[in-house]
Amino acid sequence: MSAVPVTSGETLKHLAEAWSTKWDGRWQFEAGDSGFLNPEGVVQATVYAVRPAKVLAFAKGSFGHTSHRFPAA
Question: Which end of the chain has fewer beta carbons closer than 10 Å to its terminal beta carbon, N or C?
Protein backbone atom coordinates (compact mmCIF):
# COMPACT_ATOMS: atom_id res chain seq x y z
CA MET A 1 0.00 0.00 0.00
CA SER A 2 1.30 3.46 -0.81
CA ALA A 3 0.10 7.02 -0.40
CA VAL A 4 -0.19 9.04 -3.60
CA PRO A 5 -0.54 12.86 -3.62
CA VAL A 6 -3.92 14.10 -4.90
CA THR A 7 -3.37 16.90 -7.42
CA SER A 8 -6.63 16.91 -9.38
CA GLY A 9 -8.32 20.27 -8.90
CA GLU A 10 -11.81 18.76 -9.05
CA THR A 11 -10.97 16.08 -6.48
CA LEU A 12 -9.36 18.61 -4.14
CA LYS A 13 -12.37 20.92 -4.47
CA HIS A 14 -14.79 18.08 -3.70
CA LEU A 15 -12.76 16.99 -0.64
CA ALA A 16 -12.40 20.56 0.68
CA GLU A 17 -16.17 21.08 0.42
CA ALA A 18 -16.93 17.77 2.12
CA TRP A 19 -14.46 18.32 4.97
CA SER A 20 -15.51 21.94 5.56
CA THR A 21 -18.68 20.64 7.28
CA LYS A 22 -16.72 18.47 9.74
CA TRP A 23 -15.10 19.28 13.07
CA ASP A 24 -17.22 22.29 14.17
CA GLY A 25 -16.48 24.11 10.89
CA ARG A 26 -12.83 24.60 11.89
CA TRP A 27 -11.62 22.94 8.66
CA GLN A 28 -11.81 25.93 6.31
CA PHE A 29 -9.34 25.12 3.55
CA GLU A 30 -9.86 25.65 -0.17
CA ALA A 31 -8.53 23.64 -3.10
CA GLY A 32 -5.32 24.95 -4.60
CA ASP A 33 -3.19 23.75 -7.51
CA SER A 34 -1.47 20.98 -5.55
CA GLY A 35 -3.14 20.83 -2.14
CA PHE A 36 -5.28 22.68 0.35
CA LEU A 37 -4.89 26.40 0.98
CA ASN A 38 -5.85 28.32 4.11
CA PRO A 39 -7.96 31.51 3.79
CA GLU A 40 -4.77 33.58 3.29
CA GLY A 41 -3.83 31.47 0.24
CA VAL A 42 -0.78 29.80 1.78
CA VAL A 43 -0.37 26.08 1.03
CA GLN A 44 -1.00 24.30 4.32
CA ALA A 45 -1.64 20.66 3.50
CA THR A 46 -0.80 18.12 0.86
CA VAL A 47 -3.66 15.65 0.37
CA TYR A 48 -2.90 11.96 -0.12
CA ALA A 49 -4.99 9.06 -1.38
CA VAL A 50 -4.41 5.61 0.08
CA ARG A 51 -5.88 2.59 -1.70
CA PRO A 52 -6.69 -0.25 0.72
CA ALA A 53 -5.10 -3.63 0.17
CA LYS A 54 -7.40 -5.58 2.50
CA VAL A 55 -10.63 -4.92 4.38
CA LEU A 56 -11.88 -6.86 7.40
CA ALA A 57 -15.59 -6.85 8.31
CA PHE A 58 -17.16 -8.23 11.46
CA ALA A 59 -20.81 -9.09 12.15
CA LYS A 60 -22.44 -8.27 15.45
CA GLY A 61 -24.67 -10.90 17.04
CA SER A 62 -23.84 -13.87 14.84
CA PHE A 63 -20.08 -13.42 15.45
CA GLY A 64 -19.25 -13.80 11.75
CA HIS A 65 -16.43 -12.12 9.94
CA THR A 66 -15.07 -11.84 6.42
CA SER A 67 -12.21 -10.24 4.55
CA HIS A 68 -11.63 -8.92 1.04
CA ARG A 69 -8.34 -8.36 -0.74
CA PHE A 70 -8.23 -5.74 -3.47
CA PRO A 71 -6.30 -6.43 -6.67
CA ALA A 72 -3.01 -4.59 -7.03
CA ALA A 73 -3.38 -1.36 -8.97
Answer: C
Cα–Cα distance for residue pair 71/69, rounded to 1 Å = 7
Cα–Cα distance for residue pair 38/31, rounded to 1 Å: 9
Per-10-residue mean pLDDT, the chain, length 73: 88 89 79 85 85 87 84 75
pTM over 0.70: no
Query: What's phi and psi for 3, nearest 5 deg?
Result: -95, 135
Please, which residues bridge with residue 50 across strands?
3
CA separation for the pair 27, 22 (Å, rounded): 7
- Cα–Cα distance list, 58 to 34, 61, 71 (Å): 37, 10, 21
